[in-house]
Amino acid sequence: MTKLSLxxxxxxxxxxxxxxxxxxxxxxxxxxxNEREREREHDDxxxxxxxxxxxxxxxxxxxxxxxxxxxxxxGTMGYTGYKIISAKRPKLVKK
Amino acid sequence: MKNxxxxxxxxxxxxxxxxxxxxxxxxAIEDLGWVxxxxxxxxxxxxxxxxxxxxxxxxxxxxxxxxARQMAPAYKPILNFHIIVNSIGYFSGMFHGLMLSSNxxxxxxxxxxxxxxxxxxxxxxxxxxxxxxxxxxxxxxxxFGLVILLVGLILLHVLTADD
Lengths: 95, 163
Known about the structure:
The structure holds two protein chains of two kinds.
Chain A: H1 3-23, H2 33-53, H3 62-88
Chain B: H1 2-13, H2 25-60, H3 64-71, H4 75-99, H5 106-127, H6 131-141, H7 144-160
Helix pairs in contact in B: 2-3, 2-4, 4-5, 5-6, 5-7
């Protein structure tokens, strides 16, 4: 058996072991199911409230911050490039 | 000797891990943001102070030039510290942003953009060999305006982020 196949078998074994970690959750229906449903609905409502308070992309003053940042980055890059080009260009001598 | 350096760098990258020691997942992600801010301050303030003091010593002339000469060997270790700790801060910040990407807002997006521009210019400045690229990245990385923008965005982000 080559080292590679040994490594692959070990990797496969490790991958299979991790599957069982995810398998035992969410399967215990029956006792307390209604309570869990109610909790889930309550959490959803709370998330909806949070969504209303959040600053969303494409709205309001905070968008200006993004536009200013993008322009500042573009401006700085342009200015830096211009500085390098202007420093390299030979100056014309007046006759 | 190189192995020692590798180990040190490896352990430095583990520094943000205690953030996950918190019991609440949201708190851990929030802590990653604070790790990013802390790493940025620790990595940048001493480096800028060192460079400014050295420049000042050279400009003043006289006996201070000797001090500048004595400071020269410390430049490389301080630069490496600046690069490593800032990289840790950058990746912590990016993971913090990615894990909270459902709450993305224009300020966070702007912060991520400025951080990325500064990080890429810093990496290129250190590892590129082309003269033009080095000059471009040196000017871009040292732009005072970008630093001010970064600090302003961090403050705005901290003030506006949800609890």
